[in-house]
Amino acid sequence: MAWVRVQFKGKRVWAEVGPTGELVVQGGRVPIRYSDKAGAKIYNASGNNVSRIDGEKPRELEAGQAAPDRPAAASTSSRGSGFGSAGRRTQAQEAAARQLTASQIEALPEGTHICFTDGACKGNPGPAGAGAVVKLADGRLMEEGRFLGVATNNVGELTAIGMALDLLEQAMVSREDHVVIFTDSSYSRGVLTQGWKAKANKELIELIKVRLSVWSRLKINWVAGHAGIPENERADELAGQAVEDNL
Q1: Which residues are catalytic?
Q2: What CA–CA distance (Å, rounded) separates 11 from 25?
Q3: What residues does CATH 3.30.420.10 cover in the chain?
Q4: Which among 39, 53, 84, 116 has most CB atoms closer than 10 A?
Q5: Arithmetic mean of pLDDT, 213-219
Q6: How does strand 179-183 pair with strand 113-121?
Q7: What residue ranges in 1-64 does DSSP mark as E strands?
């Protein structure tokens, strides 16, 4: 879950942000916490009293706990996306998520290579896997699932993005070509492209950032997971099967 430093009634606190870095707002209220420590109380604050601080970047924080004024069931980082959370989406939310991804793909320049990535983990940490699906502009389809041993879900998500780069390189794709990687991990997108500060996986993150830096026209987009988007579902299947095959 990602948070960013904000001003609240003259104090610097943490406010929850969604997959694209926007403040999470529900019923005009924003989840805030006064501490970045694990188990910190999370409150609902009026959005009118919360303001962003210039230069502050979102970062991943340890899980907090709902204060008495905030129902625990409302705690999910996907609220701000408008598509609900995986496994709980309505049919309308799933349809909206699919439509958004379809419209993003339709708007891509001709000749764009499209990648979908996902991670899987039995327990967190636990046996983990990663999956990548690459649809090359010339119509070729490349896929890979990889078992990672014992790891976290975030490691699986990050590794899957690295696997997409592997497949692009195997296909001899020019680093000047347009490339879009769709991930359902707001964490991966945040730490790789939005300046989020991560407490863990720093070496892996820096390695992937270096690899991404040589691609001049590559973007990472967030996609709603488990919303019936075929390529996202396939990447999830590849990651999950890699785990199952090694249990």
Answers
A1: 118-119, 157, 184, 226, 236
A2: 19
A3: 91-244
A4: 116
A5: 96
A6: parallel
A7: 2-8, 11-16, 29-33, 41-46, 50-52, 59-60
